[in-house]
């Protein structure tokens, strides 16, 4: 149940191009909120809302030192999303294996 | 841009436990809306809204035959989500490789 709620939040967080771009940028290394905000044609307060949302889902961690808040990617949360997708893939692949076996069995029976 | 919009919709569609459960169920094979709705303690009209949303993002396809609407998973759309995650993983891994190289270079310099 907790995992379900976590996945709900993670998928909502990823459903926005600005937040996905932040995740991508942080994949290359930590960055300050100011550095992260630079490429985006939105106000800093709007950008900070995206950062807070990413932080609330655990996708990023932030740490304040003086006036600078540094953001770091938390890969574990993306691994949770990857894990869900991998489970789905396993289900299809099992099904494909069963279908192949069925076709093979039919051919052998002929 | 079209890919961004597609990803936005896909992530929104996956941000719901009922819709994720439908995706999982359809991974095991096609099913009618009635069969899919059965395990859920919600009304059929509420369930049909979830089905329509999944269909609008292309995650599932539906086909009506007589009074029965059959749903099928469209794996290509989940592959788009997998692809985005794989891109992120590649970025971290490149970074980890660079960090390892840096540490190795430092050790060799000592």
TrEMBL record, chains A, B:
Highest taxon above the source species = Bacteria
Q: Which NCBIfam families match?
A: HTH_metalloreg (NF033788)
* Residues annotated as domain HTH arsR-type: 1-93
Q: What is this protein called?
A: Transcriptional regulator
- Which organism is the protein's source? Microbacterium album
Please state the span of the N-terminal signal peptide per the UniProt entry: none
What SUPFAM superfamilies does its record include? Winged helix' DNA-binding domain (SSF46785)
Q: List the transmembrane segments.
A: none
Q: Name one GO molecular function term.
A: DNA-binding transcription factor activity
A Pfam family annotated for this chain is HTH_20
Lineage, top ranks? Bacteria, Bacillati, Actinomycetota, Actinomycetes, Micrococcales
């Amino acid at each position: 149940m907790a995992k379900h709620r976590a996945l709900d939040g993670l998928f909502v967080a990823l459903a926005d191009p600005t937040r996905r771009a932040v995740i991508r940028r942080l994949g290359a290394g930590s960055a300050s909120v100011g550095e992260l905000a630079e490429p985006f044609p939105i106000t800093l307060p709007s950008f900070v809302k995206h950062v807070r949302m990413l932080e609330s889902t655990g996708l990023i961690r932030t740490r304040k030192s003086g006036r600078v808040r540094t953001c770091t990617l938390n890969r574990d949360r993306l691994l949770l999303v990857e894990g869900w997708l991998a489970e789905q893939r396993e289900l299809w692949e099992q099904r494909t294996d069963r279908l192949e076996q069925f076709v093979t069995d039919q051919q052998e029976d002929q």
